[in-house]
Amino acid sequence: MEGPSFVAKARTAFNSAAAKAERVFTDLKFDLDSDKLSSKKFKNDSLTNEGEYKSFHEVKRFRWKPSNLGTKQEWQERFRNIGIGRKGVEDSEEVEISIMAVPFYDENIYLLNMKNDTEAKLLEVIPSVDDLNTINTKNIPPTSVIKQLTVAIEAGKKFERLKDLLASFETSSPSKEKAGLSFSAVKSLVIREKEDKLAFGFGDDERVLALIRALFDADEKFLQRKLVSDSNGCTPNISFVKDIHGAPPQSFVVKLSEVIGSFRSLSKMALFWCRVVTELRRFWSEERHLPGIPVNEIPDLNSCLLYQQLQVINCCLSRKRQQHIAAESFASEMMEASSNVKESDISMGTKSVSSALYARVKSRELVLRQGANQQLENLTMLETDEPIYTPITQEGPLLTEDLIREAEELVLRTGSVGAGCSRLLSDMQAFKAANPGCVLEDFVRWHSPPDWIEDEAEPSNEVTSRRGQLSSRMQKEGNLWRELWETSKPVPAIKQTPLYYEDLQVEGILNFFENIPVTDLFQQLFLSLLGLGFLISEDKLSADENLSKLFYECKRYVVATCQRNVWNHKLDELCQVYETVETMLTSPEEVIQTLQAEETAMQENGSPTGSELKPKNNPQVDGPPSIDESDLTVA
């Protein structure tokens, strides 16, 4: 005979469990009804004597002794806890009951409360414009901001590019990761989950938009600090910023550094940078210059790469405007020339024309000058004796330090100098268009004067001798200049193929910003803000006899450390030095007392003091004291 089937066993187990559950709920209902009746009876009966009350109390206490009533109390408590979401009562005696009393509800309600607390705290990580203006502009940037940037640098080492960092926020699923983790791990996941939800609408947050408006408003005095300027309006001691490869004070990069460092979440710092890049794109599309960046200067290679790239954006915008003006001016000049002088009159020489518009070639015909800028004094063409005009030439490429490095590597790898040849050919074409009838020697006299050797001749009335010859390198067979000259045609710069495409260059920079290496971004922001702090401090501490020596020791340590390639491994030391400088500004008496105590202790121990080791320098006269490699330690 076959045993019971699996289905039959399952049905039997299910019926048994259902029967047990029914008995439990029946007992519960009976006990609840009993409670109601006894309570009602207790209220209605007036117990007038103590004996009756004791008898009633003993009966009631005896009635609550049975174990099944204890089970009822236990289930009542569990149901009550389930209803309000608190932890159930644990039973260590019975295995089945202890399993049902797993602290599931307690953990969930705790995590729920923690979510709410986290949300309230995360709302505080977005700084406001007023807070930044009122707190930070009076002093140097706080150490907390510097430290937050160092935290971002360390955290960014886990990611190669910004998109990798952003992807880590999007692809992670805290709800899926909770299973099987410890409570502390679940807690961190809950916090991250709340951060992700708040980050979803981060770019539209009113406080974020206010920060963006303040950063990009040229008239806004946002984070504007008063720095000492010389008679020329320049900030002294600016060399410190260049030594550490930071950004000029009051620049857009420095203000951006302070804003991003004021966030207390790596995700918010990254998202705010993305919002800044979006605004950079909008400014470029609307042809608006960026505030806090020179409008028409070549990249400053002594500043950080981020500042150089923003310089390129502004400079490209200025060039586009200049090209538009040049095109209109060229068209206007051509129309004026054609309307003032008829072609028949020019060929017959019956009209007196301006040399600024026309040049007489060797055949004595008048040819229109195109793209002429201004006349060179005392310099005429060798064959026609017509005045030489400087041409309007194309602007060269705007090279940042990374592009220069790439160009050098290309030359070393291939031996090609094509970019230089293109620029030279463009200049030759523009020169020919502005000076009809010119020869190579005329171009060399303007473009490379050292390659024109004048003949020794008797003094004459001529201011500049027209007799001479090209240098030996120019006369060599196969000379590149001569080959390019023979192939070049008279084409004004406005009609030439562009040597540099501003739109493509800026688009490349903005694309780079969207996927910038994380550590590179935060390192540049860190150095820029560090430089501002020391510039402000030097204005206040350099004249203090008690603190200037310590300040210059801190300054020299920072310079020596940042000029090494491994400075990012000494972030903690740099933060300690910066915090020391901040303490010198906020609590100078405390620092002076500490220095005096150390000096006294050294004298009592018989150790030579700093004044005995080397003479005191006057920073105002002798400059900062010298420093040795062995001195580069942080107390």
Automatic annotation (TrEMBL):
The lineage of its organism: Eukaryota, Viridiplantae, Streptophyta, Embryophyta, Tracheophyta. This is Rab3GAP catalytic subunit conserved domain-containing protein. It comes from the Eukaryota. Residues 599-610 have a biased composition (Polar residues). Pfam families: Rab3-GTPase_cat (PF13890). Signal peptide: none annotated. InterPro entries: Rab3GAP1, Rab3GAP1_conserved. Residues 368-514 form the Rab3GAP catalytic subunit conserved domain. Residues 599-635 are annotated as: Disordered. GO terms for molecular function: GTPase activator activity.
